[in-house]
């Protein structure tokens, strides 16, 4: 059943995933995620639907090229009553300049009758025309057979005629979609097997939705039946119950089956990082229980499991978590917490002997801080500073005596309602108290600018540092006034470095200052700046 | 392959689900959930592990009887080196007074050798002894074959000998467990099929974990191979990636296969309510994308989908949501077409003719606003206000003339660094300018409190309104111009209503004020408050 033809992976996070309730990608989100998808070895990246919304237009207007993945533009087959050459939407799709196009069309007679309301032969014709036109004018044309499984169950001859029209017109891939997500694995396996008697499996793809909780199983069933392209999304993002989780499909096919893939070990190790990146971009807590890549996916509670796992991980782990870039997480054991912290030190280049008493203290500090709401997984620079400070390696580059931030919303002289933020900062630099003030487009921006004014004279290297991201999460919304705010800040400099810091406080401005302070300190530490300030703290 | 024997459902939420990190059921939680599990037609409720912790002891001490479900106590087979009759843990299990007991034991030779470190024949003996003893002293004895699939793959003869010992000793059910969750559906189907040649399928159960995202598919595969008991948990709760989601298994088997179950239509309609109840009890936001029962499971966002669903729901819905007690939900967003916006109006009770020119304008407004950074699909209350304002239905309940927020971080008299936020708000209420001031634990909290001070006198209904969630995201929609901040606020009142509003601005305090303003306005509008303020705006 398995052949030498490798299974290819087609990611639809940026198009079908964008259909998810509550998901709104910016152009910058799309650019960053596409780069990550390429890094983790996805073969095709569906970038969006040119013409459907301003975000997708902007993304394609500035489309990049990737080292491995091909960028695909998604759209519809031509409209009824037009020729493919005279359909402006189809022209827009082809002219989006992607390396390939994927066109969706109907294959369920019920949909053709009820939703489209056109003659069935016309539906077959418009698929064939559109694919032929796209195949002639782009590098690669694909056809998404919408509702294929429902259609095949209802009228196999018609459903087959539709996909055969795409095949004969030169589609590189014919993708069978379980659009409503209601088909079960044994049906998928049977139907894909029957289709592959007419269209070679190496040109068949599968696109599943998780409405019965079987999207991954359905995708695997299709591969068993011969399909060689798997479509899905990061973390199973997607409308309703989501699409097939492409990460689970990739990991399972590469690590647990005999099917060939082009994925390298290094690409598989990217899976956990890219999964977390998506949730960071969406500013939502990652689902801890995600297969392979969730934070709890290899978590072990105390007692028998832990000692057994430490004796031999295979006792309670189905794969080695490092294969997908994840790690084991031991919940209670102090010893394991120690190993965990040591492993994280090692990651940032801090080598400590296993029996160093400082490690014990640091483990306690990290645990206490994480209990307060600090999250060091997404803020490696703050974790590094915490560790280096405990070891006495980080000087105080400046002392903060006081700050005051004022946000003022009022009517200006031209009768417009404007808001202005102004920050006053009193620091001790070079042993002297310095007071600076700045305005900004928000309190954190104003605070950042006022702080730089005070520091730039002695630390000119701060001139090339800028804030690139800022995220806020309220950690205990139920606690009312006791809610804690966590601020994550990403900074960057002209040397291309990016670093993330975290601040926690009941007060958002305070939390922001703490994260900002760590951001500046990390940069100065890594440039070997001398500590020329007497700390007032 | 299917027989007249019905598939039975065994819920382990209260035992295996309680192993989840962060999950801590009280006795009251267990009692309430068990009653709900009975109501939704579960055949067996695993109540806990008597002797393992005080909660489980208290639950069994006060064990109820259910109209349908049988209560099961979970525990281990006897310890090596003791007789079953002389094992205090086994005695405790039997004396818990449940209607049945389920004992877990090892069936993987590697575990017997490495984790238990006992002779393999002794392992087989202790299974047989324990089951025989329990079968003689309780109404029903079951055996959970831990790591059965890994064991069978490694040493089928030994794994079979273990489960056959349980069968011959009188176990009503022998449950094959994929403890590490790494087995794939085709393996489960093959292995269960092979086991059912030795032990009748009507006595075989299946217990799966979701480590590859296949727990539901594995459970269904086992049923296809003959197993007639499915174990799982509500919402797939459980260690690591969770157990099989019992709700998905029940709905799929009852609604989409020919297998017989004892579930009634009324029991299936309980599924959504019980799923949400679990999350309520755990004080966490329900997962929106849960198959069948998630809030998004029947949500439609794409414009084409919406118009088709309205013509005939079968076009984009795999079942009627009412069958599982769920409902259809139309989402508004960047992706939305005219049909979505109209459907959404209908949901909030706003009826507009399809060809009303105001609809066109509103669709454009929604799209433009979403491009600016507004996200209405997570902020239904702001969407409603946007629409009602456009139709001139929402009065200005108060006018904002000015606000000023100050955040001050300084050393206090006791030598501590403290941060305080103070807000001053000038509003026009009842035609008069009112100035109020308040301090809070952050700028938004202070602003909220000052605003309420100004409004409470004329709008006393605001007293029972509170902020329940606050989220911030920085968006950089287009390169070049300054970053835009999006704030989402969730409010609630004592009548149990929750509503979400959104505010966007370059300034975070400004964006927060806008979201706050919408939150207050939504409440006043829905309570029919008269507009007693002359707007200054």
From TrEMBL, chains A, B:
EC numbers: 2.3.3.21
Q: Tell me the Pfam families matching this sequence.
A: HCS_D2, HMGL-like, LeuA_dimer
According to UniProt, the reaction catalysed is: pyruvate + acetyl-CoA + H2O = (3R)-citramalate + CoA + H(+)
Q: Which residues form the Pyruvate carboxyltransferase domain?
A: 7-269
Q: Which family does it belong to?
A: Belongs to the alpha-IPM synthase/homocitrate synthase family.
Origin organism of this chain? Limimonas halophila
Keyword Hydrolase tagged: no
Q: Which NCBIfam families match?
A: citramal_synth
Q: In which pathway does it act?
A: Amino-acid biosynthesis; L-isoleucine biosynthesis; 2-oxobutanoate from pyruvate: step 1/3
Q: Per UniProt, which keywords does this protein have? A: Amino-acid biosynthesis, Branched-chain amino acid biosynthesis, Isoleucine biosynthesis, Transferase
InterPro entries, per database record: 2-isopropylmalate_synth_dimer, AIPM/Hcit_synth_CS, Aldolase_TIM, Citramal_synthase, LeuA/HCS_post-cat, LeuA_allosteric_dom_sf, PYR_CT
Name of the protein: Citramalate synthase
Q: Which Gene3D superfamilies match?
A: 1.10.238.260, 3.30.160.270, Aldolase class I
Under the heading CDD domains, the entry gives: DRE_TIM_LeuA3
**Domain of life, per lineage:** Bacteria
Classification lineage: Bacteria, Pseudomonadati, Pseudomonadota, Alphaproteobacteria, Rhodospirillales
Q: Which GO terms describe its biological process?
A: isoleucine biosynthetic process; L-leucine biosynthetic process
A GO molecular function for this record? 2-isopropylmalate synthase activity
For this protein, the record's PROSITE patterns field holds: AIPM_HOMOCIT_SYNTH_1, AIPM_HOMOCIT_SYNTH_2, PYR_CT
